[in-house]
Queue: 3 jobs
Job 1
Amino acid sequence: MDLEADIIEFRVPTENNKTLFIWEIQPSHSEAFIYESLCSVYSSFGALYLVKVCPNASVAAPGFYALVKFYSSAQASKAQRSTDKQCLFQEVPLKVRLSTKQNPKFLSESQSLSNAKCQDLANHYLGYNGWSTRIITVKDISQCADAGWSLDAGSQGELLKYGCIVELILPRHGVTCRGVGVAEEVVDKEKGPEEKLWKRRTLMKWAKDKAVVAAFEKVLLIVLGNGKVAVECRTDQEEILPDENVEGILQVNDISWKEFAAAEAEEEDLPWNCTWDGSH
């Protein structure tokens, strides 16, 4: 039995050996049908970060090409070997290759997943009942958040800043870890109390979301060839996350709430890597 282990992180997969490029997709089906078919086929090999389908360029023959990103390089490799030159959902065999083009430096650096992507990945490998989160504290830290901020004396803006500490619990593996999230925004005082109330609720939610992401980023999933999953939690010995008096802890990792909306659409904005390995 193959017990080779593959380590999966709760980070955006940017490695080329986790990316499949698929072409020779015929125009006999709709783009939506092709997308659903690819999701069905490739999700059977492992968790997917991204599936994207695009029509061929106008100078090429009618049809589509697709990009599939896995979190696991081993699963991507197995999927490539198993589906290359197979018809799958059409009458003409597909061509499937692992990407080999080098990513730009800014793409090769590790990026955080969105909260939704973290939950999808956890559900895939740990099960819906295999993990939970608990809010330790959510606090308004606007008054102790002067570092890095200097509003003009005549400014009509008011800085709102919330911090959150969340505990991530994986009961079947006996693992717990905590994450810190901070969200901030300047509110126009002239817009009235309703605007401020809405912003407070929004900032509290996104501070929690970022804390959940930070906790997941400490988790390593060790997936064996037989499908079993082990879990390790990376800890920083110098990190102290108390239940109370969190002001000093929560003055780090500042982020505007607007960045969260962009994070949810991160997979739509990443440049494509459309070079493949022709040696297979």
Job 2
Amino acid sequence: MSPAPRIMAVQGAAMIVGAVLIILGVLGFVPGVTANLDQLDWVGQRSGALLFGTIAVCALLNVVHLVVGAAGFWFARTYAAARAYLLGGGLLYLGVWLYGALVDFGSDAHVIPLNTAANWLHFGLGTVMVLLAVTLAGQHDPTKRRPRLRRAASH
């Protein structure tokens, strides 16, 4: 019988998603990668900064990506926590996507800058995270032992 892997696929996925979110958060503060960085507001819909020249960002949104990304590494320590991170984080990003899709751009109801590109980013992140949580759940949790079937002794 082969030894159990050190980490399960769901834990690896949580670390990869966390790394991607940290990279996005950092890039949101990098001149050249983020256009109009001089127009970056802390919060609010009027921030003129655009990650990759298309995705509306503000400092708060960049920090949220950094925090959620770091959480991916924290939760990746166990199978169950990694799965919960992917599912919960995915639902969070799908909620932000839904919020952006239902509230008109430029509305005072927006506390973060959202545009079509930001909505697609949040939809993609949320969908991928939920799919990873659901599909990688097919692996059994290595901390929970499955009972072994005993073979009947043949005489």
Job 3
Amino acid sequence: MEETIKSLIDDSFTSAMTLTNSGVPQVPDRYVLPPSQRPVLGSSIGIRFYSRNHFSTVTTLPVIDLSLLHQPLLRSSVIHEINMACKEFGFFQVINHGIPPSVIEGALDAATQFFDLPVEEKMLLVSADVHQPVRYGTSLNHSTDRVHYWRDFIKHYSYPLSKWIDMWPSNPPCYKDKVGKYAEAAHVLHKQLIEAISESLGLEKNYLQEQTEEGSQVMAVNCYPACPEPEITLGMPPHSDLNSLTILLQSSQGLQIMDSNEKWISVPDVEGALIVQLGDQVEVMSNGIYKSVIHRVTVNKDYKRLSFASLHSLPLHKKISPAPELIDVNNAPAYGEFSFNDFLDYISSNDCEHQRFIDTLKKSNF
């Protein structure tokens, strides 16, 4: 047993799932974070629920009932709550979002079956090239990470579905059908959310309609296996998402966001809710009125956690800059323009753990 564990640890590519299944008693050195970067586990926070009666509990993180957007007398109130959540956190959770529980459960089931496949089969999809339309990997990028992270993932382009689905895994046999249904539903939800967020900025709700229809959707399916020492490692390091919006489905709690005081807040697992995170594209488009949320992922000693991050972006070559409607004599552009391809080129040759891509776009006078 000891020889098996040693060979796994010495392997240049060893997935977190393989390490967990092998029964390693401690995480290998390459996963150990410096003390200042280690998580404080066990903390949580309350939620603030926006309902027909407005506030039903007094807490902190917003959960928004999206069904109220379709009620003319309540829409403006919900838009206001979205505005407040985006300004305060760059984050909120949504309930009554229109994605059936059966679709969500099907996607999680397909992901479970995929990550349970023999490692040799998953390795057929492995790649360190961030431009690959379908790739399996571990950590962030196992070939370049100085510190590794306790995560396995499969990422694939998902919109338009007909263009990409044939490249997706054929095993398990249910994967394309179940994950495809969830990807399509998440794309519909994204359109509704980006309209509401545009409206909350005082823009026309269709401000980004063309870019949304021509944009991309990348599905990052993540597996965070049980970890023998969750207090000294992470599933994902602190970062913000480059894209416009991320819709996150999680099987259990593990996401943490950074608040305005640079304190880490554990996001509660709200039954039936999906998490909405603002990305760098919205921060730039809003000229900094909204900020992309910095977040990280903790791991657990007792059980595996799965998540689906549906990453929605403007077209790969589309340059985004602050909306002209938000610029005036008192509000100069605070960011330079960029495209998703610019970001991919940046992360291919830079250490994103020490400098966020969006920081390279900020004007020197801000």
